[in-house]
Amino acid sequence: MTTLFALLSIVLYLISMIVLMGRLFHKEGPNKTLALSLAAVGSIAHILYLADAIMGVPGQNMSMTNVLSLISWLITVSMLISITVLPNVMLLPGVLGFAALSVLAALVIPAAHIMHIELRPGLLIHITLSLFAYGTLVIAFLYALQMSYITHRLKQKEAALIHSSMPPLMLVEGILFKLLLVGTGLLVVAQLSGFIFLEDMFSKGYAHKTVLSLAATAIYIFLLVGQRVWGWRGKQVIGLTILGLVLLSLAYFGSRFVREILL
């Protein structure tokens, strides 16, 4: 049954992605009702699969592939819920494709990283905040890419080709900075919780994660200050957003990728 849920979520995500992409730049737009319904059912199958994959062992199997799939689920659900108020139809195909790949990776790569979070409430708080911070900053990264694409189209004098699926540049920019502010705030609180509840933040096995995540936090704070004080827009914002996410991804997944996947 677990495998069935995984396969069902992959199929539904991919069909929804195809429905959206087929008419994404058509003047009438894609069939959002059909696509979102398929994606919503896919997200339900996704979390049912993850519930068994993570909780179906003594403790919790927080392997890299399971955590990545959980993050992709959080991002997918957030995007589906926010679609009525945020311009994210253009971003959904990529989000759904990534979610499908993350489920497939969790299904075919049987990595294990058993934890007993229930015995350490502080660790649960730290992990939860970290997941939400990372998910929020990934969504901010997607909006940064969207902003870059719209800016490019406008500079190429292709504004007439921008349909309803492509929102106004200023709206996307405003959403991007709100997401960066929320994500950075969550990241700071997550790191504070780590220093409060965990005793090994600078131990041999975790020092690189701590240093990289602190560097990413510094970059995001620098970006927000630059936008507020110096009015940064465009390339500076996009470049620093990408750099911050790369450092954060290395902090969260770098060493675990080597241990769980390559070795």
Automatic annotation (TrEMBL):
<feature type="transmembrane region" description="Helical">
    <location>
        <begin position="67"/>
        <end position="85"/>
    </location>
</feature>
<feature type="domain" description="Cytochrome c assembly protein">
    <location>
        <begin position="42"/>
        <end position="262"/>
    </location>
</feature>
<dbReference type="Pfam" id="PF01578">
    <property type="entry name" value="Cytochrom_C_asm"/>
</dbReference>
<feature type="transmembrane region" description="Helical">
    <location>
        <begin position="210"/>
        <end position="230"/>
    </location>
</feature>
<feature type="transmembrane region" description="Helical">
    <location>
        <begin position="5"/>
        <end position="22"/>
    </location>
</feature>
<keyword id="KW-0812">Transmembrane</keyword>
<feature type="transmembrane region" description="Helical">
    <location>
        <begin position="236"/>
        <end position="254"/>
    </location>
</feature>
<keyword id="KW-1133">Transmembrane helix</keyword>
<feature type="transmembrane region" description="Helical">
    <location>
        <begin position="175"/>
        <end position="198"/>
    </location>
</feature>
<feature type="transmembrane region" description="Helical">
    <location>
        <begin position="123"/>
        <end position="145"/>
    </location>
</feature>
<dbReference type="InterPro" id="IPR002541">
    <property type="entry name" value="Cyt_c_assembly"/>
</dbReference>
<feature type="transmembrane region" description="Helical">
    <location>
        <begin position="34"/>
        <end position="55"/>
    </location>
</feature>
<feature type="transmembrane region" description="Helical">
    <location>
        <begin position="91"/>
        <end position="111"/>
    </location>
</feature>
<dbReference type="InterPro" id="IPR052372">
    <property type="entry name" value="YpjD/HemX"/>
</dbReference>
<protein>
    <submittedName>
        <fullName>Cytochrome c biogenesis protein CcsA</fullName>
    </submittedName>
</protein>
<keyword id="KW-0472">Membrane</keyword>
